[in-house]
Write a structure and sequence with these properties.
alpha/beta, 6-stranded mixed beta sheet, 13 strands
Length: 333
């Protein structure tokens, strides 16, 4: 697995992606099969006023390149997090494709241009984009080079690792789209909402220990998050302790063992909702060796948050933090 959290999760999740996310022959993009429901709550909230891009602009990409953006009528964000930012800035009507991790309602009908999280250059180019937004983990490199060689500007954005990355990522995308003022407004809104949630977190002397487990039962993937999993910042903001990191797990993810769980000694377990479903819910979770013996397992105390938003560290992070807090302290007086 890749060392960065996004790369690690995408590489593992690729094992469970169903066919049909992109064309089998790598040609023009296809739509996902119909029938996959999205809850009404899984939506982004665009800014009240739709900004007008002021272009051209030249910005520096995290890969060291200078990228000049002359038009932003047809945008392809190659991650769910970047898609979320573009839509929340109010420019969602300019997005012409998505990565499989863009699961919110406004994006679900867009064609998917990745196959098992690998970019299909042919699919992207068939949509004639003005700008492609990518993460440092986006690949393969050959596909990204093919897109650049076709003359399409590609902006690579630094990865999200914690709450401190919310504003910088929004600002980077907003400047590339020629709407810096909207970026400042969205950053202010996001940071204020996160602060409001943190203000209402119950003050406890004993901070709950939480272990972040990444589960894909259909692929027999059972991992516990460590220092670089991406969850530590969120857990700390919620007034909790990352049990995996605290127990000495240095890597992003480690295969779950009874010993690792015993050292983490979680009072609660944080999981992605689809991961929990993949192991048969809480009943299946406690059957994973070592889980039932933890305080969290004995109390069946599990915090479940949607896959597509948990570690995005973007405009909806306040909602993620609130859900985490509500589930973690729901029984607090």
């Amino acid at each position: 697995m890749r060392t960065r959290v996004a790369g690690a999760l995408l590489a593992v999740l690729a094992l469970t992606v169903t066919a049909g996310c992109a064309s089998d022959d790598g040609g023009s993009a296809e739509r996902e099969p119909a029938g996959k429901s999205t809850t009404a709550a899984d939506r982004v909230e665009p800014l009240a006023d739709t900004p007008t891009p002021q272009l051209p602009v030249t910005v520096r990409s995290s890969d060291g390149r200078k990228v000049t953006v002359r038009d932003a009528e047809r945008i392809v964000p190659l991650s769910g997090s970047l898609s979320e930012i573009v839509f929340t800035l109010g420019l969602g009507d300019r997005v012409v494709a998505r990565d499989i991790t863009a699961t919110f309602a406004q994006a679900e009908k867009l064609p998917v241009v990745t196959r098992n999280h690998d970019v299909s250059a042919e699919s992207v180019l068939s949509l004639k984009p003005d700008l492609v937004l990518a993460e440092t983990t986006t690949g393969p490199d050959e596909a990204m080079d093919q897109i650049r060689d076709a003359g399409v500007p590609v902006l690579v954005v630094d990865p999200a690792k914690g709450l401190e990355d919310v504003g910088p990522r929004i600002g980077t995308v907003a400047r590339a789209l020629g709407v810096p003022a909207a970026g400042e407004e969205l950053t202010k809104r996001s940071e204020e909402r996160i602060a409001a949630v943190r203000k209402d977190i119950p003050k406890k002397t004993d901070k709950p220990r939480v272990a972040f487990l990444y589960l894909r039962g259909t692929a027999s993937v059972y991992l516990i998050g460590g220092k670089d999993s991406g969850a530590s910042s969120l857990l700390e903001a919620a007034g909790a302790v990352d049990g995996g990191a605290e127990s000495g797990l240095e890597k992003d993810f480690t295969t779950i063992t009874t010993e690792a769980l015993a050292k983490a000694a979680p009072d609660a377990i944080l999981v992605m909702s689809k991961g929990l479903e993949s192991v048969g819910g809480i009943d299946g979770l406690v059957k994973i060796p070592g889980v039932a013996q933890t305080p969290a397992g004995m109390e069946r105390r599990v915090v479940s948050i949607e896959d597509g938003v948990l570690l995005n560290y973007g405009p909806r992070t306040d909602e993620v933090l609130k859900s985490l807090v509500d589930q973690l302290y729901g029984d607090a007086e």
